[in-house]
Every structure is written in C-alpha cells, then in structure tokens.
Amino acid sequence: MTLLEFARGPALTVALTVFVVGVLWRIVSLATRPAPPDRSAPRVDAAAAEALHGIVRRFWPHPRFGARIGFSVFIGYLYHIGLAVIVFAYLPHIAFIRKLIGVGWPALPAPVTYFAGGVTMFALLIALMLRLTDPVKRLLSRFDDYFSWLVIFLPVATGMAAFDSATGGFNQNYIAVHLLTVELFLLWFPFGKLMHAGLAFWSRGITGVKYGRRGAMP
Amino acid sequence: MSLESDRPAPERVAAAMSAFVRDFTREAAVHMDACIRCGHCAQACHFYTSTLDPRYTPIYKLEPFLHAYRRTTAPWAPLARLLGAEKKVTLGELESWQELIYDACTMCGRCTLVCPMGIDIAALVSRARHGMFAAGLVPEDLRAAAERAENEMSPLGATPKVLKERIDWLESEHDIKIPLDLPQADVLMTFSSVEIMKYPDSLVAVAKVFKHAGESWTVSTKGYEATNFGMLSGNRDWQHDLSERIIDAAIACKAKTVVLPECGHAYGALRWEGANMHGAPLPFEVLHISEYLASLARKGKLRLKPLAKSLTFHDPCQVSRRGGASQAPREVLAALGVDLREMGDHADAAWCCGGGGGVVAIKRADELRHGAFRIKMEEIDATGAELLASSCANCRLSFDDGAAHYKWNKSMQGLTELVAERLEG
C-alpha cells in the first residue's frame, strides 16, 4: 500500500469515524448536563428570536470594543473566510466532498482559491504571533490552542505545496501528506477548541435566551 | 479563617469539587467548552484595564473551576484523567485564586458584551464562588458580612430593632410616615442595609414618593433587607434564606409588588434569581425602585418640578447590563427634565464602579478597586455634568469612598432622593 493509498483508505476511514463519533459524543455529553429551568418572570418572552439575536449580533464586535479588539477580529475573519473559500470553493475539494457525501457545487476559479490560501496562511501566522506576544493571549494559551493552530495551518501549507506550478499538476506524495494533515485535523476536531465551529452558536444562543428574556444585552 | 485552616486540605478540596460539579450545568458546560481563549474579555474588564495585569483577564479568573470541569465532568474528562492531562485541583491552587475570584471580579458582566462566544463569565464566577465558600476560601470580611446577614438579617448591623429605631427617628425628624408591618399592602418596600445605616435619607425619599403617589405600601421587619450577601459570598443556602425572607414577607402581606431598593445585586438576586431559589414562579411582581418610579411617571402619578441642571447617570451593572432595566432611570430623569449627559460608555456598556460583587466589602481589595474607579472618574469628568446620580447604594458607597480617596469634587445622589426633592405639592 502506498502512502497515498493509506491516506485515501484506512487513515481517512479512521479519521472520519473519530470525527463523527467524537463530535456526537461531545454534543450528547453537553446536552445531557442538567439544565434547571429559569422560573423568573420574563420581561421579553420570545426565546427563538432572542437566541437568534444572540447568535447573529456576535458576528461582529460590540461597537464599544471595536478599537480595542478590531485587529484581532479582522485577522480571525481573514483566516476563517480564507479557510471557507479553500475548503468549499476549490474544485478538487468539492470533488472530494462529492465523492464522500454525493453533493457538489460550482467552484471558484483556481487563482482565487490560491490567493485565499496565501491570505489564510499569512493571517494564521499573524494570529500565532499575536498569541505568542500578547500577554493576555499567552497567559491563556495551552496545548489545545497551539495544536489546534497547527492542525489548521498544516493542511493549508501542504495543500499549497502540493501544487506544482511548473507542470500545473499535483505532486502525489505531497497530496498524501496533505490528506494525512487533513485527517489529523479531523482526528483532533472533537477534542479541542476547534469544536467552537458549532459550539459558538450554542453558547451564544444560551446567552441570547438568558439575557433576552431579561431585556438585557450582554 | 482559623477554623477553616484546621480542616484537612483534602476535605476542603473535596468540598470545593463537590460544589463545583453541582454547578456544571448545561449552560456552564457549554460556555466553558466554547471558550477559544481569545482574551477579548480582558479589554472589557475594569481591573485588567486599570492594571494591564493579564491575571485579571476575566476567563483566567476561572482557571481552577475550568480545571475541575475538565477533570470531572467535561465530555473528555475520563480521557483527561487517564492521560494525566488535567491535574487534580489543589488547595494551594484554590487559595492562590481567591483574590481573582473575589477581590478582582465584581461580576458586572461587561466581559460578556465583548465575548465572541457569549460566555456568561460573571455567572461562572458566581458559581465558582460556591466551591470557594465550601472550601472556606471566602475573604473573611465578606464571609462575616454574609454570616451577619444570615443570622442578624443585615450584613451591616441593621437588625429589625435598629430598623425600627431608625424609622422612628426618621418619622419624627421628617414628619413622614413609614408604615411598618402592615397586615396588608399593595407594595412591599425593601431597603439595603447601606441605605438604612449610611444613607437614611433614602428611606425618607421613598416614603415621600409613596405618599405623593397615594400608594398602599409597607415595610416588613420579617423581610426588609434586599441585599444578598449569601449570593455574593457563594453560600447558596444563605442566598436561599435571604431571598425567602422577602418572599415570605410579601406573601404574608399579600403584596402585589415587591419594590427593590437602590441596590444593583438585590435586583439580580430577587428579580432574576428569586423564583429559582424559591423553586416556583413568584406570586408577585418584582420591580427595582427605578422601574417603579418610571411606572409612576408613566401613570401620571409623579408630578415633578423640573430640575434645570445637567446630570450624568451611573448604571448599576446588575440593574442595567445584567438586569435589562437600563431605560427605567432614563425615563425618570426625562420626567425630571434634566439635561442628561451620558458617559462614553453607558447603559449596557457602562463601566462598573469597581465595588460590586461584594468587592467593596473586601478591605484588602481597596487599592485594586480605587485603580478601577479612575476609569469612572475620567468618564464622568468628560461629561461636564453638574450632577451625578445612580440607583444603587452600593455603587454610591463605592463612589463616596473613591471620591474621598482621590479628593474628587463630585458627589453621587440617589435617583429616588432626586425625585423626592422635586415632588410638587
């Protein structure tokens, strides 16, 4: 079995299995924690609207904090959008997803996605620099923060490296390594902070409902 | 603390862990799991902003609580224990975090405004205090105040006997009636011990407003103290007891409304936590005094002489940002006709005075609190307003202390007193 066959075969199966089972386990574990009812009389009684408002309004910083956190938020947006473009708008990735789940969609031109890849790597490096140099971020950071950064950075970097500009094709060994880094990402996803991709909505929604019913805005 | 230090360390840690685990509800768990450690919360915290000490980053104040969660209850806790990824929480760790959990957090909730995940850090700190109390790790002055509240009905010595004496004195001094222990009244009025002992004119102001509006009201010696030091110190049983006193008193006099005094955390304790402590919806309405004044203004029951001055208003965090009643005092100020000059950060975004969450009761936190108070002074000075008002006696205490410390020439007035001074007729 070649490295590429291993990456496309058993490694991918294991990574996807751990990803799906791990994510489900984490969600079920959280969902089954006790949730005592709030018996206070609500000022506003529209839980769904409050949850939605809580989720949506945190996509951008509260106006009073824009100046203080704006750069950090901008860098965050840069690599989140960049990653979304790379994963969901690059033709080979769409083909890969179609093979996995049977659903596909039109791709963006390749140069656009290469540019997104470059911007994403740049933004990720800035994010890492901020984490290492900002006293607050440095103090808060632990293994999860650095490892999660690594498992995002590696697929982008190896994906960019796999493209052979001289031939316009892909180096098969690099593709294998690229796939393995993606699998590392899938393996780590349920265990660390990467789960915020889904938990952000849950967390914001809880606060949205809690303070929405008070007519407050935290 | 001598008694606590006699308890074996493992027993104290076990007590803390047991309380922590009880507090790992779905809300707490999701919030702790969702944190991406961006540190944005630091930018909202008055203690971080005034010191630039990263230890005062709000989410960092919860580290032992987070460790306990990841080791005992988090989805991957068994794995974390197996791999030794999360060490046991130690007494030393809890002791070293006492300052961060108590002295350096007013539970103002400003950090939640900026958190991209919407994590309610103030609520998590409040939960973490339960474990700290169980381990005997509450600052002694705060613990003593809470114990007095539980045993004597007041953290500041405003016992029922003292309350009666004060009311007798105020009634004769100001020729006003403060009805005590009426068998039936529409409104049960409560006070803060800070008002009773330090700002007794607040009681007179309340009586004048009720008289002016022609409302049926009473004060009960069974449940008059609205502050809840059980909640602030982290003793859930005491929090329950203190809330139940007011609830029982209100039910006994068949009150339709309980009016909470100029106190921020009293609002959180009864308006938003009271029913949860009681275990059932409350059979009466709960209003902060600013909401009550606003409702009187709306009904046309407040006839006020205009106050032709500029004024800035300090929002008590638990009433505005965490309580949802930011607009009520502004309605009252509009009825007074003042030239309201808002601070740069006001209403939901207002900076805390630094004294909330029981911090003003912790003597050793004075220096930290005074540092945070500078933010408030600068914002108020920038408004150029002639008057300064708020609707929290605890904030007022914090302001008076801060003003004395810095020899600042501003003095805070209670909103109710401002209204009472401008009543017509």
Largest interface in this structure: A-B, 56 and 65 residues
Structural domains of chain B: how many:
3
Order of helices and strands of chain B: HHHHHHHHHHHEHHEHHEHHEHEHEHEHEH
Strand order of the largest sheet of chain B: 2-1-3-4
In DSSP terms (H or I, runs of 4 or more residues), the helix count of chain B works out at 22
Can you count the beta strands of chain A?
A: 2
Total tally of structural domains of chain A: 1
Task: Report the strand count of chain B.
Answer: 8
The main β sheet of chain B shows up as: 4 strands, parallel
Q: Considering DSSP H and I runs of 4 or more, what fraction of the residues of chain A is helical?
A: over 70%
CATH architecture of the largest domain in chain B: Up-down Bundle
> How much of the residues of chain B is beta strand, in percent?
5-15%
Taken in chain order, the helices and strands of chain A follow as HHHHHHHHEEHH
Oligomer class: heterodimer
Mean pLDDT of chain B: 97
Q: Which stretches of chain A of 5+ consecutive residues score pLDDT under 50?
A: none
Helix content of chain B: 40-55%
Beginning-to-end CA distance, first to last residue of chain B: 55 Å
CATH architecture call of chain A: Up-down Bundle
